[in-house]
């Protein structure tokens, strides 16, 4: 049974899609940064390495729609910044798949990843190496932009999330080479790392200008809400990208395979089970948001401004999830059929 036979829109989404009004501006500049970094054909790379994408392949990803759908409230400047991060994350993913996953080159993947660590917020006074490829060049450029003064508190946490993201790629490759399909109990927290989901709260804060108040940020309820928020992202992606990952890249790190192997069931049964699991995590997020967060807010004594800021952040988080859902079910990178969404 092919996952293409499953209607991906069966993924539950209770939040309406909202589209950032600056989408058209991203259309116009969508290719310029990727080309200048050497990710897109048409740029002369000093090392003569081939570009990661052709122009047609880049346009088919509709990264501008991904950004405008997930961050409907962002200013144009913030939208552009997150757009570049999205392009970089997809560039890393596609380059890693082509250079290492398809070839099984684990040693090369280790070396590539070790060098990337040198670009993740080097110690004060230390200098990052000269970028040697498009992924390094993009990461070095982003490090100069991602932490303006109002987001400076994110520098350590964001770079820690990126370190988890690139390290997870090596672990995924090791699993695929050995044929080890992760167990379901271990997979959900690992998928938060391999999807770079720990960067998503930053993106919401970037777009809304709102933070989760410190009084409640580290409570069990908020931690559970953030876990459910992040789980939907990567696990829903596994449903949408099953064909590309498992059939084309021979990857074993996919929720459908994980559910089937962990529960000892067939692919025919694993597909709806995986869908139900993804939908359950979104129901967890919604339950925590509506039922458990309000009494926590009352007990914590948040003032009116803090409550308003929390509501703004939560509205941004809901918009982020609905935008991801729209991209998974409508973008040519994932969709097998026709779908249309507002622009």
Describe this structure in words.
This protein is 65% helix and 0% strand. Mean pLDDT is 90; it is low at 336-343. The chain has 343 residues and is mainly alpha-helical. The longest helix is centred in the last third of the chain and has 34 residues, at 267-300. It has helices at 23-29, 32-37, 55-61, 63-70, 76-101, 106-117, 134-143, 155-178, 184-194, 200-208, 214-217, 220-240, 242-248, 255-263, 267-300, 304-330. Helix 12 runs parallel beside helix 16 (304-330). It has 2 domains: 22-63 and 71-178, Farnesyl Diphosphate Synthase; 181-343, Farnesyl Diphosphate Synthase (Orthogonal Bundle), CATH 1.10.600.10. The relative contact order is 0.15. The chain is globular and about 60 Å long.
What is the strand and helix layout of this fold?
Blueprint: H1 23-29, H2 32-37, H3 55-61, H4 63-70, H5 76-101, H6 106-117, H7 134-143, H8 155-178, H9 184-194, H10 200-208, H11 214-217, H12 220-240, H13 242-248, H14 255-263, H15 267-300, H16 304-330
Helix pairs in contact: 4-5, 4-16, 5-7, 5-8, 6-8, 9-12, 10-16, 12-15, 12-16, 14-15
